[in-house]
């Protein structure tokens, strides 16, 4: 290796090390050092998210591949118990499916539904809140009365209503195929008023600022003022609420699936696995319901604890 190549490689190495040192010494890591619970929750959450993203590569078995299922392997306990099989670390279900693989794919489905449902809620809430707060008057009255009417219904009941109507309109043959779309839409529509009220309150504060008045004076359109001046100043609060709302979406999806209004058994989610495992709980096969329930609890606690830290970090009054 030439001297120039050696110097280049050393320079790249030092730049990478400098990058990681900058991250570790940043305000985020300094804040997390004072909140060990939030740091642990963030670490656990990262592991869970990575496991869900790389589920096709981490799972020992593809739960969607029926040809790989063997009924002779059904109802096996975890590998460390008597009669366990080393091929199935967490045991198997009634079809002989590997429970670890089902957990990874179910976790992936639950997180995907949660993130996409919150995306729908944020999109609707941002649009309605910005329009309501910026224009005021009749627009504000109509949008806020819509939100008030929806607030009279619990989010779970609204999601059940939307899911039930969608199922009645869709043909039976395609219900399973569009189940995820229906659940995401139901959860997204049921929770947009929370974001709309938050964005409206922030917009009412921002629209009277000098920089917004200056943008209007120079001839910027309403769309330009909203998108360039107001929207960036309300995103922090929306991001914090969205982080914590993912836990609500995941929990609601699990509840809907447990009640039979969420994901079908052909597309396993944590709620579906809990529903299936509950039927075997009193027969002694506790692992079928215990592991999905435990993973759901760990996921929700991690999101909530980490979300509390995110809220405190982005709130200047608490710094």
Describe it for me?
It is a single chain. The chain is an all-alpha fold. It has one domain: MetI-like (MetI-like fold, Orthogonal Bundle), CATH 1.10.3720.10. It is 71% helix and 0% strand. It has 13 helices and no strands. Helix 5 (99-135) packs across helix 12. The longest helix has 38 residues, at 222-259. The protein starts with a helix and ends in a 5-residue tail after the last helix. Residues 1-25 have low confidence and may be disordered. Keywords: Cell membrane, Membrane, Transmembrane, Transmembrane helix, Transport. Belongs to the binding-protein-dependent transport system permease family. It is a multi-pass membrane protein. Residues 107-307 form the ABC transmembrane type-1 domain. It comes from Ectorhizobium quercum.
Count of discrete domains: 1
Give the strand content. Answer: under 5%
Low confidence ranges? 1-25
Structural class: mainly alpha
End-to-end Cα distance, whole Å, is 51 Å
Output the CATH class name.
Answer: Mainly Alpha
| Count of helical regions | 13
Outline: elongated
Helix content: over 70%
Instruction: Give me the strand/helix succession.
Output: HHHHHHHHHHHHH
In CATH, the architecture is Orthogonal Bundle
Number of strands: 0
Radius of gyration: 24 Å
The average pLDDT value, as a whole number, equals 80
Pfam families: BPD_transp_1, OppC_N
Keywords: Cell membrane, Membrane, Transmembrane, Transmembrane helix, Transport
Protein name: ABC transporter permease
Membrane topology: Multi-pass membrane protein
